[in-house]
Amino acid sequence: MNWSAIAAVALALAVIIGAFGAHALQGRLDAYARGVYETGVMYHFLHALGMLIVSILPRTGAISENRASTVCWLLAAGILLFSGSLYILAVSGQRILGAVTPFGGLSFIAAWVLLAYWLVARK
Question: Which of 5, 39, 25, 16 is nearest to 91 (CA)?
C-alpha cells in the first residue's frame, strides 16, 4: 500500500472539506456545529500529516514497513470514524453519530501508542 500517496490524498481532502465548511456552510451552521466541524477538520489534518510522516519512517529504518502500515491503517480508520462522524454530525445535527466518534479517537490513540512502543522497543 502506498501510504504516502494515501496521506497526500487525505491532506488534499482535509483542505477541500475545510474550505467547504468555511465557504459553503458559512451562515448555515450554528456555533456548536461550526466548532464540531472545525474539530473534525483539525484532527483530519493532523492525523493525515502524521500518516505521511509514518509512511516515511521505514525508509529511515526506524520501524518496519509492516508496522508503519499498521499505524497508517489505524490513522486512516481514525480519520474516517472520528473526523467523518464529526462532519456528518455538524451538517446533519444527528447527535447519535457522536457515538461513533470515540472509536475514531481510540484508533488515533492506538496508532500513536503502537508507534511509540515500536520506536522505543526496536533493536
Answer: 25
